Amino acid sequence: MANLLFVLGTRPEVIKLAPVIAAFRAHGAPFSVQVCVTGQHRQLLDQMLNIFSIKPDFDLNLMQENQTLASLTGRIINSVNDLLAREKPDWIFVQGDTTTVMAASLAAYYNNIKVAHIEAGLRTGDKYSPFPEEINRRVAACVADLHLAPTKWARQNLLRENVGPEKIHVTGNTAIDALLYMREKNKTHGPELMEKLTGLGLPADLSKMVLITGHRRENFGTGFREICLAIRELAALHPECLFLYPVHLNPNVQKPVFEIIGNVPNVKLLPPLGYPEFVFLMEKSYLILTDSGGVQEEAPSLGKPVLVMRTTTERPEAVQANTAKLVGANKETIIANVRLLLENKDEYNRMAAAINPYGDGKASQRILAIFNSLLK
Ligand code: UD1
Ligand code: UDP
């Protein structure tokens, strides 16, 4: 028997690990699967655990209001360390580049436990952008025994850092497994989802809707102010458009967003949405404005132009394919690029082609197959 422990802490980790956990659980022996949540996020984590029906075996419940990186890191290392010393799994699985990933990987290393890193090899080359994710994933890469890279480009990054080729597998991103699963499931729940959303005050006609998300630490302060001022001006320039923004629970995001665009008639601020509702809205949207990692992967698969409010991206494939564009967190650049897509149909059509650089929906099955062959 191989004892596997999935360690996760935030919203995107649940979404991207849910298909992998389901695949290993459905396979059964020789795998025994347990789930530990650090609780780096509390409400956002629970929302997604409920949606994917994941009941954690261990809940470390570590979130604190407006937590600092150092205090969170310390709490996770200590708590995961104690758990690993007690449970002694053969492998831990981590996904992505959050503090949970970095700290749990180190705790596993201290306990001589193997680490499988899903979504390995993403890099911007700039240690402060995204902050602290670029360093989190590099630490995870130093420690990992198995690197499950989503794309060939990610594999190249790992090879450049002298990771042995035998330890790297290109699997596709499990985000696309989750997305395709939810899109299919939503097909039979359209009226219910619409009813839920109209209950939140959304109009039935969402044909000119700009969907917005944002939460990156490097955008706190000036960046978020610029983003909100841009949205306010765009809303005035385009009263026929609805600017829909489910606001992340981080207080550094909530404060400027509600202060600057809390009272604009065609800006609708919502609480963070469940994954089915969010996927439904991505499909209905005209374009997407975001600094999120996961949304950058999902939008191209849905044929939605995505303007990325960052100066760097570790997901260059969609930028190279012209369906994503970096616009920074700069008011004038955001306004100019959103206007271009709203006002120039040719430009819009050029960016709206559906492409699939991040996966085909089978990443979890590939990861399962890799582990099966590892045990032979
Ligand atoms: C974290 C990750 C980021 C990831 C993002 C996904 C780190 C350093 N950051 O950022 O990589 O893209 O999650 O959303 O790992 N909060 C709540 N309830 C919640 C979640 C957050 O109240 O359910 C508030 C708390 O005050 C918390 C703060 O947000 O202290 C920050 O949470 P944290 O996980 O440290 O950072 P995020 O910005 O959410
Ligand atoms: N998402 C969601 N509800 C929302 C906003 C985002 O379900 O209100 C999903 C989105 O589809 C994607 C993931 O959450 O799969 C992205 O999470 P986030 O942007 O918080 O983190 P990142 O991907 O930047 O690490």
UniProtKB/TrEMBL annotation:
Question: Which GO molecular function, any one, fits this protein according to its record?
Answer: UDP-N-acetylglucosamine 2-epimerase activity
The family database entries (Gene3D superfamilies) matched by this protein are listed as: Glycogen Phosphorylase B (3.40.50.2000)
User: What protein family is recorded?
Assistant: Belongs to the UDP-N-acetylglucosamine 2-epimerase family.
Q: What class of enzyme is it?
A: isomerase
PANTHER family registered for this protein in UniProt: UDP-N-ACETYLGLUCOSAMINE 2-EPIMERASE (PTHR43174)
> Which SUPFAM superfamilies does the UniProt entry name for this protein?
UDP-Glycosyltransferase/glycogen phosphorylase (SSF53756)
- The UDP-N-acetylglucosamine 2-epimerase domain covers 30-370
- Which named protein is this? UDP-N-acetylglucosamine 2-epimerase (non-hydrolyzing)
Enzyme nomenclature, EC number: 5.1.3.14
Per the UniProt record, which residue ranges are transmembrane? none
Q: Which UniProt keyword terms apply here?
A: Isomerase
Listed InterPro entries: UDP_GlcNAc_Epimerase_2_dom, WecB-like
